[in-house]
From TrEMBL:
Gene responsible for this protein: LOC106742256
Domain of life of the source: Eukaryota
GO terms for cellular component: cytoplasm
Cofactors, names only: FAD
Source organism of this protein record: Dinoponera quadriceps
Protein name: D-aspartate oxidase
InterPro entries cross-referenced by the UniProt entry: D-amino_acid_oxidase_CS, DAO, FAD-dep_OxRdtase
């Protein structure tokens, strides 16, 4: 079987890794217009799934999240952890708006620790906070994970090819199965009008003394990563396609983060980045589809896109689900011959 995975970000590469385990005899090609400049590279990579994240049902969504956590945790416990950039991390979320802001119904029963912050902990950082939670979780540093994933794939015989597609139909007749992990590109490839960009801007600073993450509400966060680089954020601009840095936004992010964690005023800026999160109104799309090749043969297409700002978190879970759909569709298609 010849398989194409469309997309070189965290969803596409993770899908490819899991696909190689599931379909050992398949000839796999990953197609992407760019492997080095994806929104995955901008993400802080903390495993925290927002309340708005949604799959087709709550049961399926919970399974995606659980499968994803276990996937990353297995890497963390392996000798590949440092190469793949998967580490333990813990920290705080503070809020004044509502106690529900510091709750998380998706991960409270999944991560090792998720508890209410004490009165003393509410005063750890700047701001007069009313509500707080402390929790432990995982972090996947995409600047390490993505190159590691590509290396794993190439060592396993997978072909990585730069190719700009205008339509998935271009792959009909060339591949038997297409895994569509095109993110925001699905807007054009699938004519999906539900796809909307959520522009985000972050600042990366050098701050080796920061070992704990901090959220001040949901619009301010300080997340330490590997090599002493800390991500300061953030922003969410709905339906914005602007990939240029905004100095006013940078100043606002820095002001909020410095107020939250005053020691950051001494942190040197390493770089600033902008990314367009592939948000899909309604829910993440993970479903099987078909298209016809020139000889009227059916080509299986499995869509796996629209993760918004939670692609790093939930890529493994949606990939596992997508692969089950692909296997079932292949069995069904073969049975009809």
């Amino acid at each position: 079987m010849k398989v194409a995975v469309v997309g070189g970000g965290v969803v596409g590469l993770t899908t490819s890794l899991l696909l190689r385990r599931e379909l050992r005899n398949a000839e796999v090609t990953v197609l992407a217009s760019d492997f080095d400049d994806t929104v995955s590279h901008v993400a802080a990579g903390i495993f925290r799934v927002g309340a708005s994240y949604s799959g087709p049902t709550e049961r399926i969504t919970r399974q995606w999240i659980r499968d994803s956590y276990e996937y990353y945790d297995n890497i963390r416990k392996s000798e590949e952890a440092s190469h793949a950039g998967v580490i333990d991390i813990a920290g705080y979320m503070f809020a004044n708006s509502s106690p529900s802001t510091v709750e998380n119904h998706w991960i409270e029963d999944l991560v090792p620790i998720y508890r209410r912050a004490t009165e003393e902990e509410l005063r750890l950082v700047g701001g007069d906070w009313k509500y707080g939670s402390y929790f432990s979780t995982l972090l996947t540093q995409c600047s390490l994970y993505l190159p590691w994933a590509r290396q794993q794939l190439q060592a396993d015989g997978v072909t990585l090819r730069r190719r700009k597609l205008r339509s998935l139909d271009e792959l009909a007749g060339e591949f038997d199965l297409v895994m569509n992990c095109s993110g925001l590109g699905a807007r054009e490839l699938c004519n999906d009008k539900r796809m909307v960009s959520l522009r985000g801007q972050v600042i990366k600073v050098k701050a080796p003394w920061i070992k704990t993450f901090f959220y001040g509400e949901l619009d301010t966060y300080v997340i330490p990563g590997c090599h002493s680089v800390v991500t300061l954020g953030g922003s969410r601009s709905f339906d914005s396609e602007n990939t240029r840095l905004c100095r006013h936004e940078s100043a606002a992010i820095r002001e909020r983060c410095d107020a939250l964690v005053p020691s950051l005023r001494h942190a040197e800026t390493v770089r600033q980045e902008v990314g367009l999160r592939p948000h899909r109104e309604g829910n993440v799309r993970v479903e099987a589809d078909f298209m016809r090749d020139g000889r009227s043969n059916r080509v299986i297409v499995v869509h796996n896109y629209g993760h918004g700002g939670y692609g790093v978190c939930t890529a493994p879970g949606t990939a596992m689900y997508a692969l089950r759909l692909a296997v079932d569709a292949h069995k069904s298609s073969t049975a009809k011959l």
